Amino acid sequence: MISKDVASSGKHLKPHSIQILSILRLLSVDRGDIGVEKHLAQILTGQGKSLVLGLSAALLALFNHDIVVVCYSEYLATRDFNDFKDSFTSVGHILSFPRNSQTLLDREIALLSYTGGDLHGGIEIRSTDVKEGFVSKCSYALLKCWCRYINKLPLNDDWIRSFRLDSDGNIKHKDDFGVFRNQIRGYQNSFIYFKLRNNNFVQSSNGLNNFGYLNLSIASYSYSRIPEKFPLILGVTGTLSELTAYEKNVIENHYNISSSSIMPSFFGISNLKYDPIHDFQCHKSSIQWRHAIFSRINAVINAQRAVIVFFDSESEIADFRKDFQSQLDRLNEITINTEAKIRDRYIAEAGLSRTVTLATPEMGRGVDYKSSLSVEKNGGIHVIQTFFSMDVKEETQIKGRTARKDNRGSYELIVCQIHLLKLKLTTSYDRVDTISYKHLLHSRKDQTITNSSTTTVKLYNANETHEKCIKFYRNMGINV
């Protein structure tokens, strides 16, 4: 029997029983009273979270609700939009972002991803209309103070690489999700723009300023307060059972989501091959670490399989490619910033025999990598994670890129001690041969507890500032 998830099998998909039961649970059909209560459900990797949300959204829309489907990933949101566009149109609705939304369907529990990172944002004005010449002169004067420091930094420096010039020549900055956007980082944009551009500077293009602007912070708001605007929150995720104590407390006591479901796998026991003892390596230096990764890649492709290697950043991918690109025949790279058509092609090719795909963590969530029939026969797609995730949910998602549904697949973890030291997961006194996966699990757990206390303080301060800004605007007669 061939899995429905294997590429070229040509099967037409339809909802299976677990997906239908998930929808019924989300809509509180099993409750005796009237109405739908807030609910989160765990649906395992590759078993139809998008389908469950799409069908739930369509059903609620038929009852005259406005629906907002939220996803942390622009790539996944665009993919699902295109997949379900015809279905929504056929019932008279199109996926959109209405102003007065009554229902929030949250694909990956976005409210938790916010509390794990930045808790507040700001609205800034960039002005070149007032005293334009003065502002421009200020930018050039500030540049002189910074140029010596910036010029000493190589172009492959991680900070420099977090900026990029787009096709129109505008400076972009990488956000927390790895996407390059028109994101202002104080006046750093100007300094990096001059370094990357080198000459022929253009102050403004398509209404966007590269330099010569003035930042005025006029408001600060807390992302954690956004879900409070929705009377109903329904969500699906693949990692509900792995929430930390802090995250569970936020869900239950702050957002008042007390109902949840852990849905069983439609395909039974997972076929993933992974042993945390034998499929774990730790190496002392970056050179040894990269050579170990290359060695394992060779072993996998020589077995006529496909391998996906997840690196922590694009700079790590660049360093690996520099050393080994000439020695690998079928080598592709996928990041959140890869051009859409190329990204889709590389995703489709990732499961072909002897194909090596290098990817960033963002491409380890929700992306369907399908193995070819020959790769499946030889053991399925092999996944190598080259860094230790500080969030266990990220690790689970990356593992879920292989052995999806009833497919075969394997996973291993190859880490570098230098990286672990930076994350404070190990100390300089730890010998590399004593560092085990179990050791890192204990370190991660301890850090999670510490970070939860810090996050609580940040959340309190962010919400306090948020309330002051709301009050300020209301006193001005502005409804927010």
Number of helices: 15
Q: What share of the residues lie within helices?
A: 25-40%
The separation of the N and C termini measures 56 Å
Mean pLDDT: 82
Query: Unreliable stretches, pLDDT < 50, 5 or more residues?
Result: 93-137
Number of strands: 19
Label the overall shape: globular
Helix/strand structural class: alpha/beta
For the sheet with most strands, the description reads: 7 strands, parallel
- Please tell me how large the radius of gyration is: 24 Å
* Strand content bin: 15-25%
What can you see in these coordinates?
With 480 residues, the protein is α/β, with parallel strands linked by helices. The chain is 39% helix and 17% strand. It has helices spanning 17-26, 49-62, 74-90, 110-115, 132-152, 158-161, 188-197, 245-254, 286-302, 314-324, 340-349, 373-377, 392-399, 417-422, 437-475; strands spanning 39-42, 67-70, 103-106, 120-126, 163-165, 171-174, 180-181, 204-205, 208-209, 215-222, 232-237, 259-262, 272-273, 280-283, 307-310, 330-334, 355-359, 381-385, 409-416. Strands 13, 14, 15, 16, 17, 18 and 19 form a seven-stranded parallel sheet that branches. A five-stranded parallel sheet has the order 2-3-11-1-12, with helices on one face. α11 links the parallel β16 and β17.
